[in-house]
Amino acid sequence: MASSMVTSAQPERPSRPNLAFRRLRGKRSPAEFAAAVRRAAREIGERVSCDARYVGRVEAGEIRCPNYAYERVFLHMFPGRTLTDLGFAPRASVRGRRARADEDALPAHTRPGECAADETRGAGEPYETQDTQDPYEKHDDHEESDVLRRAFMTGGATVAAASLGPLGLALDAAAAGRPVRRAGSGEAGALEEAVRRIRLLDDRHGADGLYRRAAAPLRTAYALLDAGASSRATADRLYTGAGELAISVGWLAHDSGRFDDARSHYAEALATSRMTGDAGLEAHAFCNMAFLARDAGRPREAVRAAQAAQGAARPLGSDRLMSLLALREAGGWAGLADRVGCEQALARAQAFFDRGPSDADPEWMSFYGRAELEGLEAQCWSALGDWPRAARHARRAADLQDPHFTRNLALYSAELADDLARGGRPDEAAGAGMRVLDLLAEVQSSRVGTMLAGTARVLLPHRRNPGVSAFLDRHAALPRPA
C-alpha cells in the first residue's frame, strides 16, 4: 500500500472559529449536539447526517455557512436568530466566488450559491470545502451524485446500501483495469463520507444487508492508496479513512456473524495504524478486536486486546474512549468467569464515563452514551449468570436509547428478553421479545436474531402461557436465513 506524495507549496490560512455556534452548544458534547440536530431535523421533516465531526468543523470555522437543509434545521432549533446570529457568513457574501479558487480545490458536487468553506485556500491544500452532504438532499446532476440520490430516495436498507458508492468513479476505473488517478482532497472526503454512511445505515438497519456492498468502497480505498496522493496531508487522511473503513466493514462482518472476515478486516486496520503511527486508529482497531474475541468465545484474547487498546488510547485524552475500552475488558473478564476482574473494570468504566464528554472523543464514538454503557454492563452480568442484575441494566439501556440507533434499541431489547427468560420471568420476556420482533422490520442483524432464537428456546417450556405462545408463534413465522 505504498503511496507517493507531494506537499503543497502554498501555506494554509487558518480558519476563524465560530464562537457563537460553540456557545450555543453549551455543555453538550459534539456528539450529543449532533444528535439534537438530527432530532430537530426530524421534527420539520428534514434528514441530515450530522455527526460530531460536522459540529467540530462548524465550530472551527471550516464551514462558513451551512447548506440549505442544515440552515432550515438550525433556524428551527434557534428561532428568531439568523445565520449571522449563529456565527455563519451571509450566504450572499460568498456566493459566486468559487470561480476564483482553483477548481481542483473544490469537490465536484459543490452547487452554485452554496457556501464554500474558504474560497481563498491554496489549490493543493487537502481541505474539504463543503459541509457534510446528507444522503437525502438533492445534488447536481453529476453522475455520482445522481446515483446516490436515486438510491436513497428509493428507500429501504437493501437499496440504501447502494449509496455506499461515493467512491464509485474510482471503483469503476479499478474494475475496468484502468489506472486510478492520484487522489486529492475530493477522494479523501468521499472516503470519509463512505465511513459515515456505513455507520449511519448500520445504526438504522443493522449489518446483514450492508456487508457485501460495503466491501466495494474498501477495495477502492486501497486502490487509491496504491495510486498515491496529491499531498502528504491527503495521504494521511486516506490512510486514516481506509483504516476506519476497514473497521466499519469488519464490524458489519462481525454483526452478521462472519467472524473470520471481521478478524481479517480488523487486522488490516491495525496494520494501517501501525504503519502511520495513528494511535486513535490503533485504539479503535484493538477495541473492536476485543469485542470480536469476546463474541467468538476467546475471552482471554478479549482482555489482552482491550488492555492494548487502553495503552494506545491513554495519550489521546478521551475519558469516554477509556470508559468504553474498560467495558471491553470487563466483557473479557466476565467470559473468564472472573467476577472480581469484571467488577474492577466496570468501576473504571463508570469513573471514566462520569468525567463527561470532551472534544477529544473520537467521531466514531457517537453511539456511546449512557444507554450503551448500561447495555454492555448488562452483557457482563449475563455472562456471569446474574440474570436479575443483567435485566435491570438491559432495561435501562432500552429505556435510554435514542430511537435513531434502531439496531442498538433492538439489541438492548433482545438482551432484556433473554435475561428475563433465563431469570424465570417468562411473561415479561415475551413482551420484550415482541418489541424486538416489531423492530426487525427495520433491522437486519444476525446477532440480534441469534439472541432472540436463544430466548425462544428458553421460553418453550412456558408455551401454555398466552403471551409466551403469541411470541413463539410470531417468532416461528419469521423468514429463516438462507
Offer a few descriptive terms.
4 domains, 22 helices, 482 residues, 61% helix, disordered N terminus, mainly alpha
Overview of this structure, please?
This is Tetratricopeptide repeat protein. InterPro entries: TPR-like_helical_dom_sf (IPR011990). With about 475 residues, the chain is an all-alpha fold. It folds into four domains: about 15-95; about 185-275, no CATH class; about 290-370, no CATH class; about 370-480, Alpha Horseshoe (Serine Threonine Protein Phosphatase 5, Tetratricopeptide repeat). The protein contains 22 helices and no strands. Helix 12 (about 260-275) runs antiparallel to helix 13, helix 15 packs parallel to helix 17 (about 370-385) and helix 16 packs antiparallel against helix 17. It is globular and about 65 Å long. The chain starts with 18 loop residues before the first helix and ends in a 6-residue tail after the last helix. About 50% of the residues are buried.
